[in-house]
Amino acid sequence: MKTLVLAILLITSPVTVQSAVLRLKDGGTLQGVIVSSNAAQITLRTAQGEVQVSTDRVLDIENGAAPAPAPEAPAYRIMPYRRISRWEQSPLKAGDQMVTFDLGLIAPTDDVSFSGIGGGLASNGDAGPLVGLQYFYFVTPRLALGPGFEYFHRGATASFDLLPNAFSNVYGDTLSLQALARYFLTDKGRARPYLLAGVGPALNSTTIDATPLPGYYWPDTGTNEPRRLINDSAWVFSSTLRLGIDFHVFSPSVFGLEAGWNWLSGAGYAATPQGKALGLSEVSAPLSTFVFAARFGWRFE
User: Fold this and answer.
1) CA atoms of 107 and 154, how far apart (whole Å)
2) pLDDT score at 112
3) Is the peptide bond between 273 and the residue preceding it cis, with omega within 30 degrees of 0?
4) What is the CATH number of the domain that holds 52?
5) Is the distance from CB of 132 to CB of 138 less than 8 angstroms?
6) Which residues face 43 on adjacent strands?
7) Are residues 175 and 57 in the same domain?
8) Which one of 13, 37, 58, 295 has the fewest beta carbons within 10 angstroms of its own beta carbon?
């Protein structure tokens, strides 16, 4: 064991990095690596970190002891800075509410038939605009339920096949009120895909106009004026199934895109007196449409 004189010589010598055991006057010991020393204190790196020991407390120093292990690395990691969006700070949760407004297009996929009076087929309207309004209540972070109101117009279909020797237009309007369910495939992230399904009543109208081609005339009057053959509305059952995705870019606002199908049950649409004069009583006009829409919404609690 070295004497206290050697200890004083060590701590007053130029700074060296060496292992040592410090025996203290109070009977304790400290083991570590001497990082620095001067006449007043010794800096020692121990397993618990660096400590400063006053030379007045040191009784003896023994060199050559096994070096103390370096302090353990902290259990945490410093992550790179990333801005947390307001939406990530307040993700969807049960009890949230959302109102959305829709703008889109529909394209009919079914036909109207005049085969009963020797005619042919024509598309039940052409592509047209769609508008809608929905309210959703989140039962869970992924499942939202609520009512939806939707209106769409079928543009006029120009046809030379529906009625022999005549030019025909088929068009109409639909107003529906459905019970909707939206199920999100994930409740995290800024882009959240979902499935939308709905059922409910709809008021659907169908109108068919016709005009004889040049050189042809109506058989009942011998004239060639334009006629409205069908102009009627009926309550039908409607359903929808769509796939969409919501983008939560500027919380709490939401922008979404969706595509899918609407189905309306078949119904009979009565002929006008001019249509009845040609032998029509009514026409069955089932309606299925492809839907593409953009949603603009607002979430609140």
Assistant:
1) 8
2) 93
3) no
4) 2.30.30.100
5) no
6) 36, 52
7) no
8) 13
Cα gap 190→242, rounded to integer Å: 20
Q: Which residues of 22-46 are buried (b: 16+ CB within 10 A; e: fewer)?
A: bbeeeeeebbbbbbebeeebbbbbe
Residue 222 clears pLDDT 80, i.e. is over it:
yes
Do 8 and 140 belong to one domain? no
Q: Which two tokens stand for residue 207?
A: 């109108």
203 and 268 both lie in a single domain = yes
Q: What is the Cα–Cα distance from 25 to 289, expressed in whole angstroms?
A: 94
Domain match, 274 and 217 both: yes
Q: For residue range 35-67, what is the model confidence (pLDDT) as tens digits?
A: 888 878 888 888 778 888 888 888 888 775 444
Number of compact structural domains in the chain = 2
Q: What is the distance between the alpha carbons of residues 44 and 53, in angstroms, rounded to a whole number?
A: 8
Which of 44, 63, 82 represents a domain boundary (last residue)?
A: 63
This prediction's pTM: 0.68
Here the tokens at position 2 are: 């070295």
N- to C-terminal Cα distance for the chain? 75
